[in-house]
Amino acid sequence: MCKGVKESKKISAEFKKLAKNIYKKGLSIVKKDCGTKQTKTKEECKNIKIQIKYFKKLLHNYNDEKQIKKKQKFVLETCKKQFCNEGCKGTIFEDGLANKLPKSMIEKYKNNQNTKKLLINQRKKNFGNKKSVLKDNFFEGIKTKEVKKHKKEGAISGCFRI
Fold first, then answer.
1. Most buried of 45, 144, 145, 158 (most Cβ within 10 A)?
2. Residue 88 has what DSSP assignment?
3. What is the mean pLDDT of each run of 10 residues along the chain (162 residues)?
């Protein structure tokens, strides 16, 4: 199931293609509509130029091997945490009291009180008065059809909410 790197490469290639097209389109608009015969307002031209800079940087990151490996690692770790995580350890779906985060999450967000509050509120919504929202290592809110599909693909857990 956790074949996130392969998926990440595919998504990266598609996104890179999209970013490249938007970048080229932006450049042509600037040349055509923001040049000497300016048909766009100064504000529109300014916004287009900002977007061009953003997509240029984005394209640079997609060509940077370190950035690509970082993204792939992130996708793989996220995939493992969602689909290869018995008991959903280290997520808001881990068993326990609704108004208390798991220890690993407390440690992870110890310097970010706002995020901790947000996660506790989400946990309260998911748990209600229960101590567990897992059914056979899958979040009980996931449709049976989806659970079967993920299990067929090799997942041992479903630690996410759709």
1. 158
2. G
3. 56 70 75 72 81 78 73 79 90 92 91 91 90 92 90 87 66
